[in-house]
Amino acid sequence: MNKDEIMIFGLTSNQPLTERICKIIGVRQSIITTTKFLDGEMLLQSLDSVRNKEVYLIQSTSQPVNENLMELLIAMDALKRASVRKINVVIPYFGYARQDRKAKGRQPISAKLVSTLIETAGAHRVIAVDLHSSQTMGFFDIPVDNFSTAQTLANEIIDTIIKEKLDPEKCILVSPDHGGLKRVHDIEKYTIGMTKGIAVVAKRRPEPNKAEVEFVLGDIKEKVCFIVDDMIDTGGTILNAAKALKEFGATRVYILACHGLFNGTASKKMADFIKEKIIEGVIVTDTIKIEEERKFDGLRIISVDQLIADMIMASYNSESLSGVYETKQEQIAKKIQDYLKKG
Question: What is the CATH architecture assignment of 150-302?
C-alpha cells in the first residue's frame, strides 16, 4: 500500500472508530473541518489536498440521523469539487435501512432515497457493515460491499463459552425472529463445535417498535442461549425474546447485536434485565459511538476496527475481500480445536 496515496477522513459521528482504523493501517487521519452555523447549516472543508487521491470517508448515519447524513453528503460534494479521484464511503451503520420497502400504502422507500442521495453526491463506492437488509445494495448503481460482523460476534461467543467454562453441548444460537435466521446461520459457520443447534423466536408486530412473542421453535430447555440480532433499538423485541427463552427453560441468556442504538429507555431496560438475571449481559460492536449516558453495567462493546481496516487495505490493493473472511475463519477454527483438545 502506498500510504501517501490513500486518505482516510472521519466525520463527527464516530471519531474514535476512525482513529483506531487509521492506527491499524498506519496512516495519519486526514483533516476535514465541520462548521455549524446558528441556523443549522453546515460547511465542510478538507485541510489536506485531495487532488487525484483515493479517499475513504467514514461516517455512521446514526442519531442524529439527518444531521449525520447531511454532513456526509456535504463532505462528498466538497471532496468531489476538490478533484478527488475516488470517494469510498464507509458507513458502519446505515440509517434508514429499515425503510427498504412499502409496508403500507403511501409510504416512502427511504433506503432507496438515501442511496440515491449518496450516489448523486459523488460516491464511487459504498462500504457498509451489516445492512438491515441486503437488498439495500440493489438500490445503488455503484459497487456496494456489505461487510458481515458474523466472525466478530462468533469470536465473542466462543470467548464467552471458554471464559465462563460453559458446556458446548448446552450452548445454542437463537434468532429473535424468522428474518434473522440467515444471520444466525452465518455465525454458526464459525461456532461449529462450540454451539449446538439453532432456535428461533416467533413474534408478531402489532405496531412499530413493539413485538409480541407467540412461541419458541427449538429445544432451549436447560440450554445457554446466545440471541443474535443486527441491531438493538428500543430493546423491546430482543428483551421479550430473552424473557420467553427463560420462561421456556433456558439457564442463561446472552444478547449480541452489531448495532447498539439504545434509543428511548433501552439502556435502563437492559440494565434491569441484567439485575433480575433474565440476561447475563449485552454485547454490541462500535459501529455506532455509544455515549456514556447510554452505557450500563453488563454492556460490552467490541470493535470492528480490525475488520474495516483489513477490508480497506484489501480494497485499496485490489485483493479479494472474501480472503479476509477465510483467514479469520481459519483462526477461529484453530481456537476451537485447541480448546476442545484441552477439554
Answer: 3-Layer(aba) Sandwich (3.40)
Nearest 10 degrees: Cα torsion 128, 129, 134, 139: -20
Q: Assess whether 203 carries a catalytic annotation.
A: yes
Q: Identify the CATH assignment for 6-147+306-327 out of 1.10.3720.10, 3.40.50.920, 1.25.40.10, 3.40.50.2020.
A: 3.40.50.2020
**Per-residue pLDDT reduced to its tens digit, 104-154:** 999 999 999 999 999 999 999 999 999 998 899 999 999 999 999 999 999
Whether the Cβ atoms of residue 242 and residue 255 lie closer than 8 Å to each other: yes
Q: Which of 203, 223, 289, 328 is catalytic?
A: 203
Task: Delimit the CATH 3.40.50.2020 region(s) of the chain.
Answer: 6-147+306-327, 150-302
Whose CA is closest to 59, among 94, 84, 26, 110? Answer: 94
pTM of the entire structure?
A: 0.93
Condensed to tens digits (0 to 9), the pLDDT of residues 195-234 reads: 999 999 987 666 665 667 778 899 999 999 999 999 999 9
Please say whether the beta carbons of 31 and 48 come within 8 A: yes
